[in-house]
Each structure stands twice: as C-alpha cells, then as structure tokens.
Amino acid sequence: MPRVKVSVIVPVYNTGKYVDECAPSLLGQSLPADEYEVVYVDDGSTDDTLSRLRKIAAGHPNVQVHTQPNSGWPGAPRNLGMRHAKGEYIQFVDHDDTLGPEALERLYEHAKRNDADVVLGKMSSTMVRPRRLFRHTVDACTIENDELMQSMSPHKMFRRAFVEEHGLRFPEGPWILEDLAFVSAAYLAAERIAILADYPVYYWMKRDDGGNNTRHRFDPRHGFWANTRTIIGQIKEGTAPSEDIDALQNRLLHRLYHVEILSRAREPEILREDPAEQRQRFEAAREVAREEFPPAVREGLPAVSRLRAELLESGDFDGAVTLAERIREVKARSEVGDLRWEDGRLVADVTLDLLRGDGEPLVLVERDGKQCLDPELLDGVPGTENGWEVPDPFRLAYAELVVKDRDREDWWYPEGDLSLDLRPLGEGRSQLVASGQLRLDPERLAGGGPLERGVHDVWAFVQLLGVDRMVRLTGTGTAGAPAAAPALTGGRLSLPYWTGSGQLALDVDQRQRKFGPDTATAAATNAERGEQTLPLSYLAATADGTPARVKVTVRTLAVEAELLPGTPTAQLRLPTRLKLPSGRHPVTLPKTTGPIAYAVVRNGTVLRLEGPAYEGGGGRRFLDALADNRQVRRVRGRLGR
Q1: pTM across the whole model
Q2: Is residue 467 domain-shared with residue 554, that is, in the same domain?
Q3: Judgement on whether residues 292 and 373 belong to the same structural domain of the protein
C-alpha cells in the first residue's frame, strides 16, 4: 500500500454548505487518492455539518472525520487533526477555502526536491492584495528572508516530523492570533523553507455570508494584546537583539509593529471605529509599543509610518486622527505610454507617483540641507511645525506591476522591475517616483506558462514614504476602446483594451471582447506579398523568429495556417491546395465576428489572399473565377507543373 504523502487537516464548525463547496477541490487532487488523506475535525457543530462530513467520508476511503466538544477556535481541532495525521507532510486548509487541482502534488514535489521543512504555496484571494513574496519560486531560504513575514496564515505545507521534533502546536481555546504563534515558531525553527510561486495553490475566498475565520482578526476580549506580547517574546527569544535597524530581529518585529500595533493609529480603523472605543485600543497599542518593541524598530520605519509611531508612542490620539485624515486623501497616479507589441509581449512605459488630496504631487522639501515631508500634507499635525525629516526617502519603498485573472482571482507578476527615483520639481522640491516598463507576455506570465482564457486586469502597487496604494493601471485611451493592436499569441487572440473605468486589460481568447471592426483599427488592404500571404496590419507580429501555427476557417473548411513574423506587421500564409470550389472565400479566426481576409481559389489552388476591406464587384469575381493567365502561370510554376 502506498505511503501517505500528505495529510490535509480541515477544522470545521457550523460550516453547512461550504463543506460541500470545498470538498471537490480536496477530493479531486492530481495526487493519487491513496497517497493523501483528508482529516476533518468537527469542533462541536450544532447544524448539519457533521452529517455532511460523514456522507463525504462514506464515499471516499481517504477521508476521515473526527469530532470534539466545541473549543471556539480552530487551534484545538487543528492539533487533534495533527495527532491523527499519517502523512509525511501536513497541509492546513480552512473549511471555506479551496485548493488548486494540482496543489498537493506540486507542493509535495517541491518539498521533497528541496528537503523543506515548510513550503509556502502561492495564494489567491478575494480579500487581500497580492504579496510580492510570491513573485518568484524559491527552492530554499530561512527566516533571514524576512519577506516570509508577509504570509503568516497557517495554510502551508509542513513536514510532520519537523512539527513533532519541535513540538509545534496551535494555542487552544479562544486564542486570537493563534496562526501567527504557530507560523512564526515554525519559521524560526526551520532549516529550509521553500516557496512555490508558479502555481496557484490556495484560494482564500470571501464567503457570501461573511463568515470567514478572519472575522476574529481583532478582538481584545480574547487576549489580543497579551497574545501579541507572547509572539513578540517568541521572536525575541529566537533572534539576537541589535540597535541596527536592519538586524534580523528588528526586521521580523517590523511586521508585528506595522500590522498589529500601528493599525490602531491609522486609517481606516482610527477613522471608522467609535472614538471612545478606539481611544482604548490606541492606549493599549501605545503600551505594547513602548514596552515590547526596541527603538530600532520604529526608527527603521519609512517617513509616514515613523510619524504615526511617534504620535502613537507620545499618546497623541487627536494628532494621529489628523494625520490619518490627511493620508486617507492621498491617491496613487499611473501614467502609461504608447502600448505596443514587441516579441510577443505587450509593452509600455509606466510611471507611478502619489498625489495629495488636492491633486498636487506629494513632495519632499529641502530645509537646512535636509529632506522633509510635504508641509501641505502635515498641516495641523502636532509636532511637525518645523518639518518632519525624511533621512532616507527610499526606506522600504518599492513599486510593482501585477496582473489579475478576473475569473480565477489569480495574481501574476510581469517580468521586469520598476525603479525609484527622486524627480526634481524645482525650488527645493522633489517627488519620489517609480518608473519602468510593462512587459506582459501572455504565453509566459502564468508561472512560466500561458494565461488562461479570460480577462486580465493590470494593476500597480506602490509603497512610497510609508504610504501604500493599489491602483488600476490607467491611460488616456477612451473607455471601452482598444488600447493597442490585437496580437496572435500561442494561436489565440490577445485583445488589449481600456475598461469602463479606464483600466488596462487584456482579453485572452475573446472571453468578453470580440475581434471586429473596433479592434481591426487598420484593416488589411489588397497589398500582396506572394500569392498566399497577406500583411495583417491589425495583428501584432509574433517575432520570435519562427512561424506561428494558427487554425483558421476558409469558408467552411478548417485548416492550419502560419503566421509569419514581419516588420512592422505579421503575414498569414495558407496551404497551397484547398478542397474548395473556385471563387473568393472568407478566412476567419476562431470566434471572430468577421473575415480577416479572403482567399481566392481556382481549381483547388490558392491564388492569393485579399484584405477584408476589399469589396469586389461582380466583374472582379468573374475574373477571380477564371483567373488571369499570368497568375495561373506563376502558381503552376511554384507547384512545379
């Protein structure tokens, strides 16, 4: 009997129909069913969840169901699942999420190949922005790669022997942040951590009833502040203290400070919650910040975050509110140059920056030889009357482009990086700007492979001066209009266009956009290049040096043609002989709304291709049927007749 490679542990409580929605993704894995098991642990459900689970188990030998009295939190059922697990590796899944079809097979192979203690699989989600941690697949790293702290959920694959060796367990009972406690302990203990970024492993989806486990993310009634201190202590015990802001301990603590502490002093929370309640959170966060975090953690923050920390630790709640109101109005702006196709990639120059609420650039100003944060932004913020110094404008700053598969919630990263620069604006003013080039390759973007059929929206993420924004990549084109010429990529049409909101999108294989008059912006003419080729001025050249195979229909006959690279346009070449009657026949690509060309055929021989703009009269069609002697001689000569 094959050994169990992976145990999937799923804690459930009053899950109802979501059990049935999650189950197919667990039971339909590409890994053979006798090589993995699904361990459900019911945490004392009071609805029909348990009966649903038992029904699933009755039809699948690799499913087991365990029950326990209600504990109120997923920690205890996860621990019980680990006690029953027999797999070499364990993978945690929440009852309302799903796995990609090849998730377990790919994760296990990546783990074995790299002898990894922990494997982080690419996550897709409707609830959070993409994490640059999943930009590239990593064979092996350690906690020294502090980007790991971007992913603190337990939905990962852990080597079971490693978990048992280090006694890793989730805190039990109503213990908020139990995932951070378990994952941070695992990161600190692991000798080899791997990241699988070229395949969407885990789909963390928002439930339509709002019942995800994340609803408990902040709840001081369940020991939030005490638990935060516990996790801080865990990190301190596993790392060496240092006054260097870039020392490992300070880099790891940065995530906790920024997410769990500063959230109480920033928008949207400080502007959204009841002021009386928020003041209590603010004071509790202040106490933890002052008592638990070394000064180097705050000093290592970028300018705006460091100012928030100063207001928090000094106890200035009103000042923090004022700053939050100012920062809430800051917007990211994108500028896109001329879009074009180069070597099968959609290419454009891109610039990103930040604007204040009044629409003016967010700037740095020079005072006494020092860079200071925009005084207009800080108007009314206590302690900034003499300016707020920005020692390093590039501190923790970055910008990146991301492409979202609209149908599947997958995020992908185009090749290339954006660079950061200080752009002089005159009079001692400058602006931090990100710039670079979008290079979107539909055939290699999805983990080295082709994008799935569908619409793919282009976004940008910027983190400048401590202000982070996700922004649609927009241009000056008309909403709904083509953004560039269509391209034939991998035998499928890729149609760039501007959405109704002005965002750049790419429709692959005509999911919503259709090839028609609005996309054929430069309709082909009657120009001929040889008897069986037609310059496709409205299709971008796939200039990789070799012809691209493409399926077309000539009237009703499906044939395989070639798309020949060319400058500036591609050319379509049909087979020389076609079993069609003499005449002029429309040539169409799959799903197109009209012909891309017309093939002139006589006695089964293709004489030439003509552009769709050509509307021949009766006399011309008569000549086509007869064919002039010069054309016939030329074609016969080519055929060796």
Answers
A1: 0.84
A2: no
A3: no
